[in-house]
Amino acid sequence: MQITELPHWQRQKMVVIERLHNDLARFTAPIFHIVLFAAVIYLPCFALVMVGGAVPVGALAALLAISTVALVIASPAFALAISIEAYFQRQTVKMQRR
């Protein structure tokens, strides 16, 4: 019997994976919040600018521009954060099956 097949070893691997995930979540969670906040500002502003209602377009255009820049700048970090979260989700599911 190999040492890697022991239940204690598998539990230790699971603990290490969960600990790494928790440590990295301190960095990925703010990225998710920033992108969510920018998207919440962007979508209504975009809709109101396109509809062109009785709302002053100057303020909406400024909010739209700022949120667009925030989304563009945060996009690579957001993609990396999603990849990290997906990796840890797969590893956690794989470890729980054993």
Which structural class do you get from the secondary structure elements? Answer: mainly alpha
Q: Kindly state the number of beta strands.
A: 0
Tell me the Rg in angstroms: 21 Å
Mean pLDDT: 87
Number of helices: 2
Strand content: under 5%
**Shape, principal axes of CA atoms:** rod-shaped
Keywords: Membrane, Transmembrane, Transmembrane helix
Transmembrane segments: 31-55, 61-88
What features would you describe in this structure?
The chain is rod-shaped. It is built from two helices and no strands. The chain has helices at 7-51, 57-97. It has a domain at 40-98. It is mainly α. The chain crosses the membrane at residues 31-55, 61-88. Keywords: Membrane, Transmembrane, Transmembrane helix.
Notable traits:
98 residues; mainly alpha; 2 helices; 0% strand; rod-shaped
Give a short synopsis of this structure.
With 98 residues, this protein is mostly helical.
Write the layout of secondary structure elements.
Layout: H1 7-51, H2 57-97
